[in-house]
Amino acid sequence: MSSSMSRSLGFALRSASRSAVAGSSKQLLTATAAPASRAMNFSTTRAAFNSASSKKEQDNQASGEAMGATDKSGAADTEALQTQLKEKDAKIKELQEAILYGKADYQNLQRRSKDEKAQAGDFAITRLAKDLTSSIDILGLALRSVPEELRTAPKDLDTKDPRRVVADLYSGVDLTSKSLLDMLRTHGIVQFDPTGEKFDPKEHEALYQAPVPGKEPGTVLECSKLGYKIKDRLLRAAEVGVVQSS
């Protein structure tokens, strides 16, 4: 073999060797770069996941804090509303009691005014009633002064007969006395005779005391002047004689 051929063959071998080495290096670099690329992508994905997880945790924490703050705010508002309701209930109760007290006071005022008005009317007639009772007493004396046999007269007597005149006069005075008593009765004034009753110093005025056999001591023996009441109140005490204890 000639030297030129030898040189050509050696050059070809070295070129092939370098090509093979270059191919192997390229494959080796490619094989090495792929895991590195995958590692880089995994690292990037992991970092993104960690960032998302961290952000989610932060969001959850913020939401929890917001919910906690909302719950606290809601609890505070509820407590404030309950306090206001209690205050309003107490105020309503106070106003209701005030209304009841005011109504009771008004009713008492109406009752007192009515009683005072009635009493004023009673007192207004008291003086006149006392004067009328005195007149009735005089009429009573006149009636008692007529003997029993002259209080009535036969109808066939002449109108000018003294017995008929006395009888008619007695009848007229008796009717006048009864008319006055009826008029007093319409105003709540009544007459009472305590003869035979127990002596009551609140309603009776004792003129004398006398021991009387067969009569209970302390009772009214006779009544000189009848008593009068005006609507269950004493207008005039009865003047009486009382049985004295022996």
UniProtKB/TrEMBL annotation:
One Gene Ontology BP term is:
protein folding
Tell me the domain of life.
Answer: Eukaryota
Q: Name one GO molecular function term.
A: protein homodimerization activity
The record, for Gene3D superfamilies, names: 3.90.20.20, Head domain of nucleotide exchange factor GrpE (2.30.22.10)
GO cellular component, as recorded: PAM complex, Tim23 associated import motor
Compartment annotation: Mitochondrion matrix
Q: Which UniProt keywords apply?
A: Chaperone, Mitochondrion
InterPro entries given in the database record: GrpE, GrpE_CC, GrpE_head
Task: Answer whether the UniProt record assigns the keyword Metal-binding to this protein.
Answer: no
Q: What is its main location?
A: mitochondrion
Q: What is the role of the protein in this entry?
A: Essential component of the PAM complex, a complex required for the translocation of transit peptide-containing proteins from the inner membrane into the mitochondrial matrix in an ATP-dependent manner.
> Could you say which protein family the record assigns here?
Belongs to the GrpE family.
Q: What is this protein called?
A: GrpE protein homolog
